[in-house]
Structures are given as C-alpha cells and as structure tokens.
Amino acid sequence: MINIPKGTKDVLPNESYKWNEVERVVQTLRHRYNLHEIKTPMFEHTELFVRGVGNSTDIVNKEMYTFTDKGGRSITLKPEGTAGVVRSFIENSLFNEPLPLKLYYITPCFRYERPQAGRLRQHTQFGSEWFGCDSVEADAEILMLASDFYKSFGINPTVLINNLGCSECRKNYISALKEFFAPKIKDMCPDCAKRFETNPLRILDCKVEECKQINKSAPKISDYLCEDCKTRFEQLKTLLTKLGVNYKFDPMLVRGLDYYTNLIFEFVDEDKKLGQNALGGGGRYNNLVEELGGKPMPVVGFGIGIERLLLYLENKGIEVKNNQVLDVYVANATNNLEPIVKIVKLLRDNNISCEMNLSNRSLKAQFKYADKINAKNVLVIGDDELKQKKFTIKNLSEGKQTEIGEEDLIKYFKG
Ligand code: HAM
Fold first, then answer.
1. How many helices (H) and strands (E) are present in the chain, helices listed first?
2. Most confidently modeled of 54-58, 85-89, 214-218?
3. CB 255, CB 199: distance < 8 Å
4. Rounded to an integer, what distance in angstroms lies between the CA atom of residue 84 and that of residue 100?
5. What's the gap in Å between 191 CA and the centre of ligand 1?
6. How far is the CA of 214 from the centre of ligand 1 (A)?
C-alpha cells in the first residue's frame, strides 16, 4: 500500500462538511466586506519568493518545495499566498482597477517543516490582501474581517499587534539592535549569527532557548517609533477598542516574513489548545509591490490557517455547523420506478435534498441505511401509495408518521 506523504492530510467525507462551512463563512464575509476572489497558480518562479518573502527567512532558506522543471526553470510550490497575489497585481496592471482593491483567496501552501499537530507540509490559508489603502481605518477594518471570521466559528482569539514603524524608524531600530547584539552574537545560534549580517530583526524570532533569553532584553521597536508612527498606532488601538476587536499590544512580536512595514499582527491561541501558537497572522507591507517591480502601493493583509482553526475548535470541543443534512430518503416499495424518479426530481427541483434506493435494497434495509446517513425523513412509495396518490412520511428523529397527499408534498418539506 502507498501511504500519504508525511505532513499532509486527507479531508475525509466525515469532516468535509467543516471545510464546506469554512467556505460558506468566507462567502458571507466576501459579500459583507465586498471582497473579490483572486486565484494564482500553485507554483511560481522561485525568485518571486526569494525576493518577496525574503532570503533571510526560514521559509525561503529551509522550507520551500523547489524543483527544476523539464525546461530547466527553478520552480517553487507556493509557501504562502501574498507573493503570488502581488506578482499577479503587478503583471495584470490591477492598479488600474478602482482602488482600494480588496482581494481574498483560499489556497493550499507548501512548507517543508517538521510535521506536528497543527503544523503540516501542505496547509490551507484563507487570506485577504487590500491594495491601495494606507489608512489606519484599513488596518482596523482588516483586523475586523479576520476577527469576524473567527467569531463565525464561536471563538474570539486574541490578536497580538506590534508596529515595525516606517523605513526611518526601522533604520534607527536596526542600528540599535546591531549595537545590542554585537557583543552577544558569539553566544547565539549559528542561524542568528547569519541573521545578524542579513537581517537582525529576524534574531528576535529565534526559537532557540539561549537566544530567546538574550532577546528578552533587546531594544524594543516601540522606543524607536517616530511621532507619526506612534500617533497612528494609538489611533489604531482606539479604533480596535471601539470595534470590539480582542487585541493586545506585544512589543516583542515579530513575523517570519521579511515584507512587513508598520503594523504586524498575529491571532494566537492563549489557552495553548493547539501546540502551535499562531492561528493567523499578517500586517502591512507598503514596499513589496515596488520591490517586485510595480508602482509604490500600500497594502495590508492576513493569512489564516484553516487546519489550525479546525484543530483549535476540535481541541476546545466546539462543533462546526453541519449544513449537509438530507431532508428525505425516498424508500422504494414498488417495482414501478418511473413515478419514484419523478418524485425525486420534483423534490430536488424544489431544493429539497433527497436520495433514493440505488442499490436494490429491501424496504427494511432502506430504512436502516436512511438512519445511518442521518436522513431527517423517509418517504415511502409503494404501489398502493401511487394508486391513492398519498404517501407516508416518517420523521426519523421524532419517530412521527404523517400521511400526506401528493399535492402537499413540497409544502410539507418547505414548512
Ligand atoms: P504566516 O504567518 O506564515 O503568514 O502564515 C499564516 C497562517 O498560516 C499561520 O498563522 C498559520 O495559521 C498557518 N500556517 C502557516 N504555516 C503552517 C503549517 N506549516 N501548517 C499549518 N498551518 C500553517 C503568511 O503566510 C502571510 N502570507 C500572511 C499575510 C498575508 N500577510 C500579509 N498578507
């Protein structure tokens, strides 16, 4: 037998309803927030991620699924959704669309990580990227969108927020970090030694215990923000409080991708139900479009891990709504198939979900099957019923039987 590759998961029929519900929630939010879907390919030229996500990140250095195709090109399966969307925005001149342009996607992402609960080699993200809006209202609204998504599943996880400042603040901060780490870097891990040269901000994201200890006393970006960045961040906090977003300021928050400027955020599992801390994350990236060859364009966005969300709900004992309910099983007690098929069609044409006997089962076996698949009702059709144009409907959960004339059939189910 050939097994599934390590770090991947099948979505089986007994849980696919959860994914249908995620899609339904996303569609509701698409409508409420006027988002537009974008679909980009599963793979891109490797260079896009090296330049977009950043060559000092773990994603690019350690986790990408990269291969050479038959034409000799270096290709990478997308490790995240943002870079492809930005590439497409530039390539398709989407800056000519009325701005802001608020996009969303649901996409598989591929990262060669050590698999654990909530950490997969193929995971799925619901992401949203808002192009052409630099306002603090946009920052607040996109956090509202993510927060509304979680609330639709009955949870309200804390979102940690931090501000990386504008280029000017970050320049001063990075020199302060260099000064702080210079005498300590010899005691830190080899990855941090590299990060010190390429991007000292990344050191703050190190998971090695010794490095984490040193990082605790590192300078904080909040002490290096210019007046404009400070004011803006205060405005954001006020707005989030007014909007009821469950946020916490975390001056030590850093993100694993290089493109962020100003606001960064992460939705976290404070009850530690997940094993993995981050349920979702994002932030503002005002330089990426230009860095990838487009016009200067402010953008803010997020990515939410769907597998992590579902695992979190499961660990918390929260049920996901199951909309896949079978209204009626049409049990066949006659050899006269034609009227049965007609009734099934009539039911379906009226948007009533139904199944009929497809396996030549006895009436008893049909009832058993209907019970197993959680049909709400069984409609029995035999020769007598067809003659009298009257049917028996058995409500399986209530054990109640009702006689109904053919003309009232639809009314019965539609209530
Ligand atoms: P990220 O924080 O790398 O950000 O990933 C977003 C979310 O994807 C994480 O919070 C987590 O829920 C989920 N995730 C990431 N890696 C895995 C994994 N190996 N297994 C399961 N779930 C995972 C981004 O990818 C950015 N593109 C987000 C963004 C969009 N920023 C701005 N716009």
1. 15, 16
2. 85-89
3. no
4. 18
5. 21
6. 26
Q: What is the token pair recorded at 254?
A: 């850093």
Quick one: pLDDT band at residue 274, thresholds 50, 70, 90?
low
Reported pTM = 0.94
Q: What's the 155 CA to ligand 1 centre distance in angstroms?
A: 19
User: What span, in angstroms and rounded, lies between the C-alpha atoms of 406 and 385?
Assistant: 9
DSSP one-letter string for 111-169 = -----BTTB-SEEEEEEEEEES--SHHHHHHHHHHHHHHHHTTT---EEEEEE---HHH
The residue nearest atom 26 of ligand 1, judged by CA position, is 303
- In terms of phi and psi (left: phi > 0; alpha: psi -120 to 50; beta: otherwise), the region of 275 is left
What is the token pair recorded at 217?
A: 């006393």
3-state secondary structure of 2: coil
In whole angstroms, give the CA distance from residue 331 to residue 351.
19
Q: Which residue is associated with the tokens 């006689």?
A: 403
User: Mean pLDDT score of the chain, rounded to an integer?
Assistant: 94
Kindly give, in sequence order, each residue whose CB lies less than 8 Å from that of residue 317, ignoring residues fewer than 6 positions away: none
Question: Mind listing the domains of the chain with CATH numbers?
Answer: 16-166+226-316 (3.30.930.10), 326-414 (3.40.50.800)
Note the pLDDT of residue 198.
Answer: 87
